[in-house]
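User: Could you go from structure to sequence for me? I need the amino acid at each position, not a summary. C-alpha cells:
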C-alpha cells in the first residue's frame, strides 16, 4: 500500500500540473512549495498599508458626534494647558512664537517646572504662585521668559493676588484638573482594553475618534503641579511698585487683558517671620535633597515612559518587528506619537542635564528648530484627521473602523 499524500506533496503536484501538465516537480517548484509550507501564518504575512475612501454614507449628525469624540482630548489638553501671558513690550508675540506654547512637550515641561519650583521654595507665597503660573514676553529681551530671576523681578508689578498659596477647591483650575484626570483615567482603561484586543485578534486598527486620545493620558502630568495652578492673578506694565506700597491705579495686564480694572493690593515681600529674601535666596539650591529627589523623579518619568511608549507604539504597527499591517490613519497616528515620545525623551532629558529645570518655560521655545518641530507635529495632526475622516466606516454593529470593508 502506498503512503497517503501529504498536504505539501499535494501542493507540489497541483502546482506542477497547473504549470506544465506533469505530476513531476521541478527543483524550483519543489523549493517554492517547501518554503510556503514551512512558513507559519504570522511569518507568511507581508507588510500592508491600506487606504480606502468609505465615509460617504455617514450622516451629518454622526459627523458632529465623531468630531466631538475626536477633538475633546485635544481641546482639553491645549485650553487647560496653555499658560496666561504677560506682554512687557509694545510688540507682542507673533503666531509662530505662540504656537510653540501648545506643543505637548512645552505643556508637560511647565507642569513639572512649577512643581519643582514649589519643592525648592523657602517661603511659598501668593506672588510666587502667580509668577510661576505666568509666562512673560518681551520682544527685545529674548522673547518668552519664565526664569527664576523673573519670578523675583516681577514681584513689585503684581496688581491682583491669587486667593491662596494653593489651588482653591472651588476654582476653575481645580475643575479643569478633575476633568483632565477623569478623561485620562478613562483613556488609560481603554488603552489597556485595546492592548488585550490586539493581543487576542492581532488587529491594529485606529479610527478617527482614537487619534487624540493619548493626549488625555499625557495630560495626566498636570496632576504633578495641580495644587499650585491658578489663573487668578494680574501684573502691571507701567511704573514698578515699591515693596510694601499699595498699587496705584494704572494700566495693567490681568491675565493678558488690558481692559480689566486694576485692584489696589498691598504687596509685601517679607514672609510670616518678617524675613525678606533676596532674589538669589527665595529658592533653595538645586543640590538640596528635596530638589535632587524631585529631579530624580522627573528624569525617571522621562527616561522610562518615553522609550517604553515609543517601543510600544512602534510594535503596534504589526504582528512582529519589520512587518507593518495597518491603515493610513493608523500609520499617521503612530508616526505622530512616536515623534512626540522621542521629543519628550530627548528635549526634556537634555535640559534637565543642563540644569534648566528652574525655568517654567522650556528653554528652546524660541528656537527655530523647535518651531519647525511644532509645525511638523501640527501638520501630522491635520493629516491624521483628514485621512481619518476619509477612511472612517461604521460597521453593522455600530462600531467604528478605518479598515477596508469586505
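Assistant: Here is the amino acid at each position, in order:
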Amino acid at each position: 500500500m502506498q503512503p497517503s499524500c501529504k498536504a505539501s506533496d499535494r501542493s507540489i503536484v497541483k502546482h506542477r500540473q497547473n504549470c506544465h501538465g506533469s505530476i513531476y516537480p521541478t527543483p524550483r517548484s519543489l523549493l517554492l512549495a517547501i518554503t510556503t509550507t514551512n512558513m507559519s501564518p504570522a511569518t507568511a504575512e507581508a507588510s500592508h498599508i491600506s487606504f480606502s475612501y468609505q465615509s460617504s454614507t455617514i450622516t451629518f449628525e454622526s459627523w458632529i458626534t465623531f468630531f466631538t469624540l475626536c477633538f475633546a482630548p485635544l481641546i482639553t489638553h491645549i485650553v487647560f494647558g496653555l499658560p496666561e501671558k504677560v506682554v512687557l513690550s509694545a510688540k507682542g508675540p507673533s503666531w509662530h512664537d505662540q504656537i510653540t506654547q501648545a506643543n505637548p512637550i512645552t505643556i508637560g515641561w511647565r507642569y513639572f517646572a512649577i512643581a519643582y519650583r514649589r519643592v525648592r521654595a523657602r517661603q511659598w507665597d501668593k506672588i510666587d504662585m502667580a509668577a510661576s503660573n505666568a509666562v512673560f514676553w518681551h520682544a527685545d529681551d529674548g522673547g518668552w521668559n519664565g526664569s527664576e530671576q523673573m519670578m523675583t523681578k516681577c514681584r513689585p508689578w503684581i496688581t491682583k493676588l491669587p486667593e491662596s498659596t494653593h489651588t482653591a477647591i472651588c476654582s476653575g483650575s481645580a475643575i479643569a484638573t478633575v476633568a483632565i484626570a477623569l478623561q485620562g483615567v478613562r483613556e488609560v482603561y481603554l488603552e489597556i482594553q485595546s492592548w488585550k484586543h490586539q493581543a487576542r485578534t492581532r488587529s491594529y486598527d485606529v479610527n478617527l475618534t482614537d487619534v487624540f486620545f493619548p493626549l488625555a493620558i499625557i495630560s495626566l502630568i498636570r496632576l504633578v503641579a495641580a495644587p499650585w495652578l491658578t489663573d487668578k492673578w494680574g501684573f502691571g506694565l507701567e511704573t514698578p511698585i515699591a515693596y510694601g506700597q499699595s498699587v496705584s491705579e494704572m494700566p495693567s495686564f490681568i491675565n493678558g487683558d488690558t481692559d480689566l480694572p486694576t485692584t489696589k493690593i498691598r504687596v509685601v515681600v517679607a514672609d510670616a517671620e518678617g524675613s525678606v529674601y533676596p532674589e538669589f535666596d527665595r529658592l533653595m539650591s538645586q543640590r538640596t535633597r528635596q530638589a535632587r529627589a524631585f529631579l530624580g523623579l522627573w528624569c525617571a518619568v522621562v527616561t522610562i515612559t518615553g522609550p517604553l511608549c515609543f517601543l510600544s507604539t512602534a510594535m503596534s504597527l504589526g504582528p512582529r518587528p519589520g512587518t507593518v499591517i495597518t491603515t493610513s490613519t493608523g500609520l499617521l497616528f503612530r508616526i505622530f506619537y512616536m515623534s512626540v515620545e522621542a521629543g519628550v525623551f530627548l528635549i526634556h532629558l537634555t535640559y534637565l542635564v543642563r540644569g534648566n529645570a528652574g525655568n517654567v518655560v522650556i528653554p528652546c521655545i524660541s528656537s527655530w528648530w523647535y518651531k519647525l518641530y511644532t509645525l511638523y507635529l501640527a501638520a501630522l495632526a491635520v493629516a491624521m484627521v483628514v485621512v481619518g475622516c476619509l477612511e472612517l466606516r461604521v460597521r453593522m454593529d455600530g462600531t467604528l473602523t478605518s479598515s477596508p470593508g469586505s
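One structural detail worth keeping in mind: The radius of gyration is 29 Å.
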